[in-house]
Each structure stands twice: as structure tokens, then as C-alpha cells.
Amino acid sequence: MDHSSDEDTEISDSEIDDYEGKIYARLMSGDLKLNKNGENYICPFCSSKKKNYSKSSLVQHASGVSAAPNREAKEKAVHRALFKYLKNGLAKSPEPGSHATPVEPQPLQNRDEKFVWPWMGVLVNVPTEWKDGRQIGESGNRLKEQLSHFCPLRVIPLWTFRGHTGNAIVEFGKDWNGFRNARTFESHFAAGGFGKKDWIGKKNQGSELYGWLARAEDYNSPGIIADHLRKNGDLKSVNDLAKEGARKNDRLVANLANQIEVKNRYLQELECKYSETTASLEKMMGQREQLLQSYNEGL
What is the annotated signal peptide range for this record (predicted)? Predict the structure, then answer.
């Protein structure tokens, strides 16, 4: 990908959005093209490193650099454009052998496994920097925008008195669509080598984000992440929620049946009153006819 005409031009923070739009338009038009090395991609804006990425890994790289507060404005802008292109442009026409994003989750193996509910994801390695006496990092809205293809309801950065901890909680809601989105979120990070096992196993995690679906282990661990999970959620399995849903449906059916029975009794009472009123009216009409007949005979 050649962007040499712009590579010596510096931009300010106020120009990031405009420059991002310019680079994104060139990517979408084909004026700028991604370089590939076999099945892998090379970040066009970090050419000095010449590192190979799978598509999902390149997405994570672009996301991490664009969110890093200590990066230059231009570096953020071009990586934001690359991230947007990978998610919106390239994803619409995947090349043979490329890894589609987001990654579809595998069928759930253990329906009794405990997850944090409402469904929550854990996001770590969020870039931060020391500024004005504390750590600062990306806002929840910005992180939510970066994760928009997983449909999160909210992203909550975790702070202490020292500032941004580099951790965040991703909320997906209580329903089954939220669970699917949360599992897709986890599968996507794991497929790119940025899941929980990768985070624990790597000595140098780099600048990319790591994420996974919160489970019992996260809930019961010490630290700020577990504190937030325990304060805002419970541990439930898919079977637990399915049983709760069945009980709620049973109660709903019972309530509806009771309402129908009450309305049927009311209708029966109305029918009885209608019959009584009709009989009384017929009796009165009969008496009236008799009176008229007697009157006419008397004339």
C-alpha cells in the first residue's frame, strides 16, 4: 500500500477525523491496497516492522494502535481508517482463505458451565498513559465504537484512584442474543491469538487488546475486574437460565389461564343477567298484550 504522498505530512489532533476519512476513502476506492504475504497481511502503516498478521490479528493491531493515547495523531488516524476498512470494506468482500470477522462461536460444550450474567466480556491491555498525575485511557464510548460489530450495550473502563487500569468490562445484556454476541466477541479475540489463554501465556502482550467472556474463574478471582463482576452480576449457566425461563413461561401460562377463567365466569354472569332481563322483558310484553286485549274487549 503506497501512501508516500502523505507520509511526511504531520497533522494535529483536531485533524484526525478528516485524515481518517481521507485514508478510508482511498482504501474503499482501491487507490490504496493492502499488501499480502501468502495468507497473511502486512500493516501498511508500520512498514518498518514487516510483521505478518492474519486478518483478525490485523484488526486487533489497528484497533490497539488507534486507541493508544501515546501515539501520534497521524498514526492514530491511519490505523483508525485501516480498522474501519477491515471491519466495513474488506469484510464485505472477503478474499479466499481470509479469516472472516467476527468469528462464529463453536457450539457450547457444557450447558452447566457458569458465566457471569448479565453477560459480560473482559477487555484488557487497553492502552493508557501517565498524564497530569494519573493514568488515562480510551473512554467507554470510544471502546464501544471499536467493538460495535459485537453489539455491546455498554463498555465500562475500570478506574482506581491512580486512574485508568487498562481494563474494561463489556456489557451484552441479559437475553440470548446478548449471549451470542458475547460468545462471538470471545471467539473473535481467541481466533486472532488475543484470548484469555494468550493473555495469561504471553510475557510480552504488545499493544493489542485482549478479550474474553467472563466466567466463574473471573468472578471469583481477586482484583478490580472480579470486584466489578461480583457487584454487577451473578453466576448462571445456560441450563439455569433455561430452567428459569421455563418457570417464567409456566407462571405466565398459569396467569393467562386464570385470567381466561375469570373472564369466562364474568361472561357467564353476563349471559345469566341477559337471560333474566330478556325473560323479564318478555313477561312484561305479554302482560301488556293482555291489558291491551282486555281494554279492546271492554270497548
Answer: none
* Residue 77 one-letter amino acid: A
Backbone φ, ψ for residue 80 (5° rounding): -65, -40
Q: Which of 21, 94, 101 is nearest to 61 (CA)?
A: 101
pTM: 0.57
| pLDDT per position as a tens digit, 46-77 | 866 667 888 888 888 888 888 888 888 888 88
Query: In this predicted structure, what is the pLDDT of residue 235?
Result: 96
Q: What angle do CA 65, 69, 71 make, to 5 degrees?
A: 55
CA distance 42 to 44: 6
List, in sequence order, every residue forming a beta bridge with 234; answer none if it has no partner: 117
Largest CA distance in the chain: 125
Residue among 101, 106, 104 nearest 59 (CA): 101
CATH 3.30.70.2890 is right for the domain spanning 115-236: yes
The DSSP result for 219-237, as a single string, is HTSSSHHHHHHHHH-EEE-
At 66 the three-state DSSP class reads helix
User: In angstroms, rounded to a whole number, what is the distance separating the alpha carbons of residues 170 and 152?
Assistant: 6
For the chain, the structural domain boundaries read: 13-92, 115-236, 247-299
**In the predicted model, is pLDDT for residue 2 greater than 50?**
no
Q: Which residue has the cell 465500562?
A: 156
